[in-house]
Structures are given as structure tokens and as C-alpha cells.
Amino acid sequence: MILIVSFHDNEHVGRVRAHLTRPAAVFDVADFPARARIDIRFADGEPDVLRLAPRGQDPIDLADVGAVWFRRVHAMELDPELRDPTSRIFAWSESNETLQGVWHATECFWMNPPAADEAGQRKVRQLQLARAAGLSVPRTLITNDPQAARDFVEARPPGGVIRKAFRNIAEAPRSTAVVDPDDLDRIDQVRFAPVTFQEYVPAELDLRVVVVEDEVFAVAIRSRPEFHADYRMGLGSAELSVHRLPDQVAASLLELHKRLGLAYGASDFRVTPDGEHVFLEVNPGGEYLFAADPTGLPVPQAIAACLDRHDKAHG
């Protein structure tokens, strides 16, 4: 049995499910505890019982699960009839402890283990391990010290530094952008929260590189000049093609995945005019359809085959 911890209208999940040959079920964390059930039993002389009952599906005995795909979960939703704030805090805490315990107790192949997925999203750790794995990364400053930020920017020619956020949250969207004179005028505001500054890497190409266990799929993205700082803003007009990573870069990326404990990740690279491949970041739950569909790369098939293979090996 393959357990997919995600949500039902996730297009990426639907595309993978179409290629699975083993039984699979989706557990949406948002359904727990209001609409989904968990049953755990321990008793002397009896087998342990860890069972999930996803909304609208048959119960799943976790002993039968040989592979878990953990991808972009939604937040738990408490029963709306529970209105008292203290009771809601307690219910959330107990539900979260139960769910985390279930994940840790499910001993099989995970893409990705929740702890690795969480740690793998931390950009500071990514850059540290990427350098240790042999990948080239941009000169970077992450600081809430206005003077340090100013010194970093002014040490480089105009247009030589970009600023970026750790996460592009819906409530406060921030695109990656070149630091301009207006940014310098308000650079004292970095005292309110750390900002990531990186040396601008001139790009011949941007890359989205997807790793599925030990398979590497790379797509080159050639954007129009106005999207040179952040290719995501210009995907509608970009040219996409299959790209072959140099062997050493691919080996270093796989080493990074090993150090982060990731079976899946979608990384962004820049290829400079002289051919250097510079690592920017890895997203443990990153999108792949926008890169795989135009180029024909079989990423959904690779994910399905990986899950099938590990579930079959489980017995």
C-alpha cells in the first residue's frame, strides 16, 4: 500500500497516481481530526495497531504501507463546534502529537520523511550543505544589520546584488529582485527582519532540476531580459528545453540530497555565460509539472515507479 500525505485536488499528486501500479490512498492532514480518524492500540500479547481512516476511504493499516509520499500538506482543521480558545489549543496540540507520532512510527520508505522535509526547507542549512557537497553558491549575506547590508551592496557595482525572501507567503508576497537605489534608501528597514542578499549571478540559463531518489531531471529556462532576476515571473514567455547537468554537478546535487535526507527535491540553478552551474536553492516539495510537461521529461512516471518499487519491496 502506498500512502500519499497531501490533498485531493493536488494536480501533481493526480498525475503520479495515474502511473501507480500498487494500491494507493490519500490522507489529507486538513481532514484531521474533524473528518478523518486515527486508531492506535497497544496491548500485551497482541499486535500493535496503527490505523488511519481517511475521509471517504477504507481504513489503512500502517503495517501494510511500504511507501509514503509526503507532499505539501495542509494545516489540520479542528471541528468548528469546538469554540473555546483553550480547548482548541489543547485539541490542536493533542492532534498534532498524535499525527507526528504516527509518522515516526510508520517505518518504511518516505519521500520525504517529515523531519527531513522540514529541515530541508531551511535555506541557511541548504547553502551550508550545498557548499560542503561541492556545489557553487553565490556570495550571500543574511542579516538584520543595516550597516552590514549597506556594505555588502556598496562593495559591488550597481545591479550587482539581489534581495530575496526565505518564503513567498501569500499575505506578503515578495519576488526576487535586483537591489536598486530605492532599496538602498530604505535599507535601514532590514532591522525589522533579516533579509537575504546575494551577489547577482549573470545567467545564460536558469535551471529547474528535479531529483527523484537517484534520478536527475534538468530543464533549462531561457527567459526574456526583463525577468533576469526571477524566472518565475516570466514563465509564460520562457523557452524550456531538456538540459544535461555536468556529471560532477549532478553528483554533488545527489550528495546534497543525501545530506539533507531527501528522496525528492526541486532545485534552482543558474548557468553563467562561461558555463558555471551555480546552486540557488532546493525545495523539498517543489513543483515539477511546469518543467516536465513542455519538455516531456517523465518526472511523474519516475515518482510513481519509485513509490511502486519501495512498496513492492516492503512485501
From TrEMBL:
<keyword id="KW-0067">ATP-binding</keyword>
<protein>
    <submittedName>
        <fullName>ATP-grasp ribosomal peptide maturase</fullName>
    </submittedName>
</protein>
<keyword id="KW-0547">Nucleotide-binding</keyword>
<dbReference type="InterPro" id="IPR048936">
    <property type="entry name" value="MvdD-like_ATPgrasp"/>
</dbReference>
<dbReference type="Pfam" id="PF21068">
    <property type="entry name" value="ATPgraspMvdD"/>
</dbReference>
<feature type="domain" description="ATP-grasp">
    <location>
        <begin position="127"/>
        <end position="308"/>
    </location>
</feature>
<dbReference type="InterPro" id="IPR011761">
    <property type="entry name" value="ATP-grasp"/>
</dbReference>
